User: Fold these one by one.
Assistant:
Number 1:
Amino acid sequence: MKMMQKKIRSLIYAGLGLILCVLLCGGGGMTAQAEESKTYGDFTYEEAKDGITITKYKGDKKKVVIPDKINGTEVISIGDSAFWNCSSLTSITIPEGVTSIGDFAFDLCLNLTSITLPNSLTCIGSYGFATTDLTSITIPENVRSIGCEAFFSCDKLKKVVLPEGITRISSKTFAMCSNLTSITVPDSVTSIGKGVFFSCPKLKSVVIPDSVIEIDVFKKGENESGYWWTVFNQNTTVICNKNSAAYKYAKENNIPVKLMPKPAKKGTILTVPSKKIKVKVTSSSKKNPTVAVMKITNKKAKKLTIPSTVKVGGVTYKVTAVASQAFKGNKNLTNITIGRGITKIGNEAFAGCKNLKKITVTAGNLTTIRKSAFKGINKKATITVKGTKKAKTALKKQLKKKSVGYVKTWKIK
């Protein structure tokens, strides 16, 4: 009964909001037209010059893994409404290479609790995951566009991690996420749309950076009483810097406000237990605090991900560098992922990590790799470079320099 009510409610709101969504957000998930539909197992797909779009799933499996290729051609997109109303679906894995998820792609997948998103993803369409049972979601760091109501009525959603790089949180993105408790808006965001957190009764705090200059609500006289369009509930605390747009908005609308804590002083060493690392503050700027990774705290750890950001003491710092000798001589590390925010890898950062066989790095921001950074890692190491074609080419060129430790037996792809 509850599930039926949820479905009916979602259909009604989706119908009311669809026209507005298209006007405000555009067809973020729309894909290129193809000549004809074809079938591969339970999938219907269309093939264009740039790759394959999955247009429909006709199966009833609980766990689905989308293929990365069909007949040798790469899958690059999940089309509009491709998995719409697949009520049996509980888990979905989307492969690397997929760059966009269409409008309504997983809308009304009422039992969907687990999703694996690829780092290649750049766009999530309107209502992309609306009315699912997701409890947490980490949106990949290369995503630049999230459509209107993308997570509308995900009433079990408690945790959301948004990527640096998106510039707008679109209209009603998290409306009716009744279990969402807190969210941090990335520094790249400049505007927050209408009704983003409508009917989020458990939302206690929203951290808003100075980069946000537009909080998009109706002005007085423009249906101000329509609570649907309010951005925040009155029991939500806005966390921001004084005199920012968010601060002024909160004060004008009698919303509780709390000032952001100050970053630690430059040179301070901070421990980040959740990431198994220690970092050093390289900039204590309120607007753009940064840190460099100094060392690993769990010496027995075999796998490590260097994140794009870390949060310590209520302050979110961008991770922009791996310090010189940070992991030198570590014999346990076998697999490391380097976040897209890293701009510099210092001298001998991974030197002597003889069992380090797998490195994943995103090209784009990484411009400096110092002397012997990878000298003495496993001779059969595989380095996977992700990003745009131009950025990947430039980074691969750097990695193939003898000065950084390159040997011909490495596989760089």
Number 2:
Amino acid sequence: MLDLDACRTFARVVETHSFSEAARSLGVSLPVVSKQVARLEQQLGTRLLNRTTRHLSLSEAGAAFHTHCAQLLDIAQTAEAAVSQFHQSPRGHLRVSAPVAFANGSLAPLLPTFLERYPDVQLELDASDRQVDLAEDGFDLAIRLTARPPDGLVARPLHRIRRVACAADAYLQRRGTPQTPQDLAQHNCLIYSQSEGAGTWAFEQDGRALVVPVRGSFRSNSTEALRRAACGGVGVAYMRDYAVRQNLLDGSLREVLAAYAPPSRAELFALYLPNRYLPPKVRVFIDYLVGCFDQP
């Protein structure tokens, strides 16, 4: 394969009609220029330049090669420029995988500001609870809830998860606000049917685990359905905080029993493949999320 540096040196010699001028303009020594041209001629198996002590000219083969060499260098320069722009500013297609509840409850409301801030980024969000393979599935980034990030990936912590009991003001005004977990026996509880121990909610009281039975008029395997039911004033929901983050911020849901929340055992992580040169589009997206979750 041709050495681009040698091709660049050869082209400069032709442009300046001088080995010494080419060396000066390239910032290298004269012997370096001579060796690169000689190596190129050896690799091609033909003389490219006719040289005398007073004159330098292209051979017939050299003239043909120079035409294609100039085109090759133009293509290489264009390719380098195309790649360098990705290192200089965030741009391009950014493919992100995130859990459904996080995508709906936390991530989606944050995206308009990010996309306005970085108009050259085209974001594709795959909301799915499946464990994607970043390399095989073509994702730049995956956001996952885990107590231990997988080996072989870089894991950037985003947020430590906690459980939140919450309800709409309309419901609390109608039924009252529970003051202790035991009060939930008198409330309509919205139950996630796929959790372990569905029908019981775990809290902590005085440093000890407290499990209380709950019941209500609605249960579902969809966190989005439960969130919407809670916002509609149907009852009290008990969900991971990221699923109702925006609702707690905008006041459509209000947290109750915060003093009894159990300690967190898992975190949200941004996972990406090890890469010495992390693309700016990935870096700024992660930094943006970290900044958002640093805020209350």
Number 3:
Amino acid sequence: MSAVAWNVSVDSAQYADAEWLHARHCPLWYVMWAPGARRFFAFYQGDADLAPLSDPSPQGLDNRIRHAQMVIARTHPASYWRCPVAGCGWTSINRTIHTPCPRPSQP
């Protein structure tokens, strides 16, 4: 058996970066730091079928998430979040607080 000289405090900056990324991209993305892999991972929580994203840097993962969101918006438009208020025409890649609800234009 080998001893590992690693402690969670060694990666405190990476965990803080993962928390920041998660707050920035939730609820559609679950972001975490994986100390064993030395990478950040993002798991898409929406309707589109998407493999997990990973990158060794928080900036790299942020760029990958943004690129994936552009692809999702283009190829899976139904995966956008829609306001639950009846008659509201608001859609967004992330859940967004908005008031008043915009109404769809009448034909």
